[in-house]
């Protein structure tokens, strides 16, 4: 089981030498307490040694980080990795292409697992194949522990809890995000992988289009009609207080909204049995804000079409980063995100909360969120949420940040510099 003293490590980071993997390794070296046993894993011994040497310059403790050779195509190495550690962090994507074998080994051996997946088809098939196995072993398999979809999922959790404290439920909940920072090359490659997976597979295409792609019990979800992933809204029309503030399509809404809906279903729909959830990107005030919102919709539609066409990949690569690429340290430090969740009850009562971080969301912010997810599993084991009918007595399963980590994770993120407020 996960807490066995025979485990050699507390956290093993697979994909440590990649761009986000390196940032995650740096965060762990800088912020994990000295008693947390950390190992760096990847395919290439020389690259791992170079990373450890680089980390040691600023963080001498990293000199003692063990190196683990593991490959997503080598099941034996993945089994050993899972048996030897309490928690695995995986930054090896696209997950639909590379992720299933590691999830299987973690679920089988009672090893907690966190990743950055923003891929609904991967998460769906992971849940279908390994939820029951993880429930039996006690492994918490927690996808989407980066900017996709931690602010979305935790913001909705806190919003629902606030309504519940007032003995109220929610009819609608909307997240508006402001941000500075680009999407990572890994995120773009994951989108390409999703489009490749549905080519010639109409059932997968229908599944991906379903707003309840990730629901553990699709038949019990409410029939709310169309729930489009992308659109244009005015703040005052979703329960906000600003008359002429606009928001347009948010590219990650298609994944985030499904993670939030899975959380809500795992929690027994306790925040409202007809809750409608959506997300948008802030575009500004007045006529200019409105025009930016509609223009963004047209640009996003074109970009999605390009991502779905193999022949346009070379052209698109001029404008978007490839996997392993990312911004400079100065650019990462200059980024930020700020999310506002607005909930409206059936009676018209309004609830809000905000989450913010002064760091590039897709890189520095994501490495913080991913690292703190793993540290929550290691250091807050006795406080982790249980009680969902889908988790059983072990607390394991294919979960979400809200249901697998919950309030202990919120507290750790707050201590790490993320700001939460009503």
Q: What is shown here, in short?
A:
The chain is α/β, with parallel strands linked by helices. Helix content is 44%, strand content 18%. The chain has 2 domains: 198 residues, Rossmann fold (3-Layer(aba) Sandwich), CATH 3.40.50; 210 residues, Dihydrodipicolinate Reductase, domain 2.
Q: Tags for this entry?
A:
422 residues, 15 helices, seven-stranded parallel β-sheet, alpha/beta, seven-stranded mixed β-sheet, Rossmann fold, single chain, 2 domains, Saccharopine_DH-like_oxidrdct, Dihydrodipicolinate Reductase, domain 2
Question: How would you characterize this protein structure?
Answer:
With about 425 residues, this protein is an alpha/beta fold. The protein has 2 domains: about 10-145 and about 365-420, NAD(P)-binding Rossmann-like Domain (Rossmann fold, 3-Layer(aba) Sandwich), CATH 3.40.50.720; about 150-360, Dihydrodipicolinate Reductase, domain 2 (2-Layer Sandwich), CATH 3.30.360. Helices cover about 45% and strands about 20% of the residues. It is built from 15 helices and 14 strands. The protein has a 7-stranded parallel sheet, sandwiched between helices. A 7-stranded mixed sheet has the order 8-9-10-7-11-12-14. Helix 7 (about 150-165) crosses helix 10. The chain starts with 8 loop residues before the first strand and ends with a strand. Pfam families: Sacchrp_dh_NADP. It comes from Corynebacterium macclintockiae.
């Amino acid at each position: 089981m996960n807490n066995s003293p025979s485990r050699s490590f507390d956290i093993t980071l697979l994909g440590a030498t990649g761009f986000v993997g390196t940032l995650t390794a740096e965060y762990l070296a800088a912020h994990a307490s000295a008693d947390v046993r950390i190992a760096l894993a990847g395919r290439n011994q020389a690259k791992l040694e170079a990373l450890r040497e680089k980390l040691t310059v600023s963080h001498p403790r990293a000199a003692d980080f063990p190196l683990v050779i593991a490959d997503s195509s080598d099941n034996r190495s993945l089994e050993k990795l899972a048996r030897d550690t309490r928690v695995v962090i995986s930054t090896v994507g696209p997950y639909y292409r590379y992720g299933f074998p590691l999830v299987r080994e973690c679920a089988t051996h009672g090893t907690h697992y966190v990743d950055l997946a923003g891929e609904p088809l991967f998460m769906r098939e992971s849940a279908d194949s390994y939820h029951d196995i993880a429930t039996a072993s006690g492994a918490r398999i927690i996808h989407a522990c980066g900017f996709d979809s931690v602010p979305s999922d935790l913001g909705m959790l806190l919003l629902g809890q606030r309504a519940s404290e007032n003995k109220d439920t929610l009819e609608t909940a909307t997240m508006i995000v402001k941000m500075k920072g680009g999407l990572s090359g890994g995120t773009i490659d994951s989108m390409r992988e999703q489009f490749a997976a549905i080519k010639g597979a109409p059932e997968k295409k229908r599944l991906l289009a379903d707003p309840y792609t990730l629901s553990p019990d699709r038949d019990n979800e409410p029939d709310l009609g169309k729930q489009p992933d992308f659109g244009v809204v005015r703040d005052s029309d979703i329960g906000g207080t600003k008359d002429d503030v606009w928001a347009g399509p948010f590219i990650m809404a298609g994944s985030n909204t499904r993670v939030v809906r899975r959380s809500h279903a795992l929690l027994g729909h306790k925040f409202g049995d007809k809750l409608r959830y959506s997300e948008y990107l802030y575009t500004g005030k007045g006529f200019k804000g409105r025009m930016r919102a509609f223009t963004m919709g047209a640009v996003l539609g074109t970009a999605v079409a390009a991502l779905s066409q193999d022949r346009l990949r070379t052209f698109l690569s001029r404008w978007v980063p490839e996997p392993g690429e990312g911004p400079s340290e100065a650019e990462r430090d200059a980024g930020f995100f700020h999310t506002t969740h607005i909930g409206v009850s059936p009676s018209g009562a309004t609830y809000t909360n905000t989450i913010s971080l002064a760091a590039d969301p897709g890189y520095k912010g994501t490495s913080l969120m991913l690292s703190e997810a793993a540290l929550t599993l290691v250091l807050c084991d006795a406080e982790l949420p249980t009680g969902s009918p889908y988790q059983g007595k072990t607390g394991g399963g294919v979960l979400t940040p809200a249901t697998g980590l919950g309030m202990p994770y919120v507290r750790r993120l707050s201590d790490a510099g993320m700001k939460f407020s009503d």
